[in-house]
Amino acid sequence: MKKLLVLIVAAMLAVTGVAATGCNKGEKEILVVMRESGSGTREAFEKVVKKDGVSLEKISKGETVEYSFVTNRQELPKTSDVITSVQSNENAIGYVSLASVSSDVKALKVEGVEANVANVQSGSYKIQRPFLLLTRADEVMTDAARDFFNFCMSSDVLDTIDEEGLIQDPNRTPAAYAAAGSLGGTINVTGSTSMTDVMTKLIAQYKLQQPNLTINPTYPGSGGGRTAVEQDATGATIGLASSSSPKSAYTENTLCLDAVAVIVNPANEMTDITILNLFDIYTGTIKKFSEIK
Fold it and tell me: For the segment 93-110, what is each residue's pLDDT rounded down to a tens digit?
């Protein structure tokens, strides 16, 4: 009888041991979701996420051989693509504009700090960036482009910025818009995909003031916005960038601020993540969420 009891207990212990050690056996690797090269969102994220003085930005620029990006990753061209990928995969992690976060995904705290207006304005939420309007450094602008620029930088747009979930720059006190009279011509507005929604609203508002103008908006990414202004021969182009990358050819003008939110699938139980965790996930040192300490 004793022998039978010993066998039963041993069997129970064996089963318990398998359950304990094998609880994460079926867990899949993290799918790392990134924006494409030239994305302002990617630039802003990668400048902040670093380890031992090496940032993800240095990896993107080929300035380090010590680290490389994880192989299990996606590099996507649009904010909406990142959200769709994370929404459809419980093992995914990505980053998007805070203004784009919906109930389809979950935004994590970073270093215990939530991405919100107060924390961005105070600087306590670290992964943040400006939304910029780019103009030629020599200040050559058509009357139409200058009037549109003045409208976007005025106090008339602050309600729209708030409605879009973006954040007013606490260091700027804009004046009211003063129209330059009835204008015609064409303005090219081009750049950051993260700025699509807010610029669509601002263009529609401005058209009520200047109905005879033609505005051509395109959103190839921040890199495309910078290039467009650099190549602008007439002063009819306003570039859009969602991270700072100064050059002598253009001036960066802050429209508003935005947080880059770290997102996971709503089924993920995580609520907080550190900068170091993010670096290790994006470089493949951490391959599963259960490995995060």
Answer: 999 999 899 999 999 999
